[in-house]
Specification:
single chain; about 500 residues; Transcription Regulator spoIIAA; two-stranded antiparallel sheet; 21 helices; disordered N terminus; disordered C terminus
Length: about 500
């Protein structure tokens, strides 16, 4: 069977159209499951898209428009079957914060976010996402899930005119809970119970063996299909209930109302908007959206890769993001990123330093050495070396964890060497990586000596303490550590 490259009429096309890789290998045995999945998801997406449009504060038809257009593109360009396409709860919440319930703003925000994501891909700027830590993502998604879940409580209870701001929403919902519409509450809770029951039934359903009677296997297939398609079945059931009441001339349920038919014209978004007091130009619209032009595309990308990220047990940024997102989404994300950055800078300025005391003081930094950490290293060495009742004559700096060093750190090491020399103490370096050793040698530090391993440095220090002073390594010893051209 020809490979994906042979099936593609144009060289390199299989890279840009991933469908050319899997489509030739598609098996008809998968078609039954794919049809059921497509039917179930398609029927589920309809009420889900309507709910997301309500969360975003937009007319309901915009939820339907955005629910299927991405699927037709992703089936050709996509590579991950688990990625959620179309509107999501988190993105709907963000749109409600930055689109001001105006469809023109929402469409322009979606267009500009796509342009930004495309530019980031072409410029290989995906590494910027690494600076948004998992606690920030988890804190935001946790707060968003609570906000969105509670936002649906008013719909289940049939309450109208509830504010969108979270704390006011909680207060007003609890204050007006006596106005609950019985029909909405009964149907909503019944649907939730049915979904939970079908989910539990599927998880406990024993698999039918091939040797069992035909009736048992048919029964298993019916139950399995019902449990798998539970979302679609519940949607159809609720729709039939609402339609039955409509036919009988009474309607105890709150309905979505009339939704415009057809599709909008396929064209570029509007780059200006008519307002009662004039026209809002493109520049003003961009200024109004503000930080949303950074938050929305970044969160859109993070939603697709967050599954692959492990949770990082960093409680402070998680709590900061979680709590502030109840106030304003953008404040929570920005505050979480700032707290994560501060913690990162703190770890750079205060790296873990292991100190082994004895006849020789061995100091082992746990990470690379940059200028914010020099004072911490000097304090760790001097406080132990000078405060001991019988100070050791030799100190060894184990550098096998240090992969990079900057100029200011080298200056700090020079001052440390001089300070220790004034107290008749020597400092030797061991296990220095080539790139770091090149920097240290080029700095021509006075009294600098290095050894290939900790054992050799300890032997040299022991010989020095017995009365002889170990000389620095000769150029022959250094040549075993340095690449050609680095020896001076």
């Amino acid at each position: 069977m020809p490979g994906p490259r042979q099936c593609c009429p144009c060289p390199g096309g299989w890279r840009w159209l991933p469908a050319l890789r899997w489509l030739p290998r598609y098996s008809l045995a998968w078609l039954q499951l794919d049809l059921m999945a497509g039917l179930t998801v398609g029927l589920t997406v309809v009420p889900q898209a309507l709910a997301y449009a309500e969360v975003a504060g937009l007319p309901l038809q915009y939820g339907l428009y955005s629910s299927f257009t991405g699927c037709f593109v992703y089936c050709f360009l996509g590579t991950a079957k688990d990625v959620t396409l179309g509107p999501t709860a988190i993105m709907s919440l963000l749109v409600s914060s930055y689109a001001f319930h105006e469809p023109v703003y929402a469409v322009l925000l979606a267009f500009l976010s796509g342009c930004i994501q495309l530019a980031m891909g072409l410029l290989h700027l995906g590494f910027l996402l690494d600076f948004i830590s998992c606690p920030v993502i988890k804190g935001f998604t946790s707060a968003a899930s609570i906000t969105i879940s509670f936002n649906q409580v008013k719909n289940i209870l049939g309450l109208q005119g509830i504010p969108r701001q979270f704390f006011l929403q909680v207060y007003e919902t609890l204050r007006r809970i006596g106005e609950t519409r019985a029909g909405d509450a009964v149907l909503g809770l019944a649907c939730l119970a049915a979904l939970a029951g079908l989910q539990a039934m599927k998880s406990r359903l024993p698999r039918a063996a091939g040797a069992e009677p035909l009736a048992a296997r048919v029964s298993y297939l019916i139950v399995w299909t019902t449990a798998t398609a539970r979302n679609a079945l519940v949607v159809l059931f609720a729709g039939l209930v609402a339609y039955s009441f409509q036919v009988m001339g009474s309607q105890p349920l709150t309905l979505t109302g009339s939704i415009p038919r057809g599709l909008p014209a396929f064209r570029l978004p509007r780059f200006s908007m008519a307002a009662p007091n004039g026209t809002v130009p493109f520049r003003s619209m961009v200024e109004d959206m503000g930080v949303g032009l950074a938050v929305v595309p970044l969160m859109g990308l993070l939603e697709t890769i967050a599954i692959a990220k492990a949770f990082g047990l960093d409680l402070v940024p998680l709590c900061v993001t979680f709590l502030l997102c109840f106030w304003e989404v953008q404040y929570g994300i920005v505050a979480g990123v700032l707290v994560s950055g501060i913690l990162l800078l703190y770890s750079i300025a205060r790296p873990p330093i292991k100190v082994l005391e004895g006849d020789v003081l061995v100091v082992q930094p746990g990470s690379s050495l940059h200028f914010p950490a020099v004072e911490c290293l000097r304090d760790a060495i001097c406080s132990r070396a000078l405060a001991a009742p019988s100070p050791p004559r030799s100190i060894i700096l184990d550098c096998h964890h240090i992969s990079s060093i900057d100029y200011t750190a080298v200056v700090g090491l020079a001052e440390l060497l001089q300070e220790l020399h004034n107290h008749s103490l020597s400092l030797a370096f061991c296990s220095v990586q080539d790139t770091v050793l090149q920097v240290l040698l080029s700095a021509d530090l006075e009294g600098f000596q290095h050894f290939p391993s900790l054992e050799e440095a300890e032997r040299a220090a022991g010989a020095e303490s017995e009365g002889g002073r170990a000389a620095p390594f000769t150029s022959t010893s250094q040549s075993s550590l340095l690449p050609t051209g680095l020896i001076q």
